[in-house]
Design brief:
- This protein is an alpha+beta fold.
- It has a domain of about 70 residues.
- It contains 3 helices and 4 strands, in the order E-E-E-E-H-H-H.
- The strands form 2 sheets. Strands 1-2 form a two-stranded antiparallel ribbon. Strands 3-4 form a two-stranded antiparallel sheet.
- A hairpin with a 4-residue loop joins strand 3 and strand 4.
- The radius of gyration is 18 Å and the shape is elongated.
Length: about 100
């Protein structure tokens, strides 16, 4: 499994450890990935994702996974989340049509 955030694409970065004597050795900066189940209110199901902690904060700020996916551009999302976004949009449009 790749060390990459499903939503933002945040991945491993590389750099140097620098000692007091200015010796440089290579190191890796790992993203803070978390396995989370997020509840989609439109669909009424839990969605399991492996996301970075900063992505989780962004999701909460935008009002949940539904709000995040509707605001995201499709070309920035992986295929399974594009399908989820379209399902959410379809359910919301049906709900608005029923209200009218």
């Amino acid at each position: 499994m790749a060390r990459r955030c499903t939503l933002t694409g945040t991945a491993v970065q590389t750099g140097n450890n620098v000692s007091h004597a200015n010796n440089k050795t290579r190191r890796r900066f790992l993203p803070n990935l978390q396995n989370r189940r997020l509840f989609s209110e439109a669909l009424g199901v839990n969605v399991s994702l492996r996301i970075a902690a900063n992505a989780l904060r962004t999701i909460e700020k935008q009002g949940g996974i539904d709000g995040y996916l509707t605001a995201a551009k499709e070309h920035e999302l992986p295929g399974d989340l594009v399908r989820l976004k379209r399902r959410i949009a379809a359910v919301r449009s049906e709900g608005q049509a029923a209200e009218a």
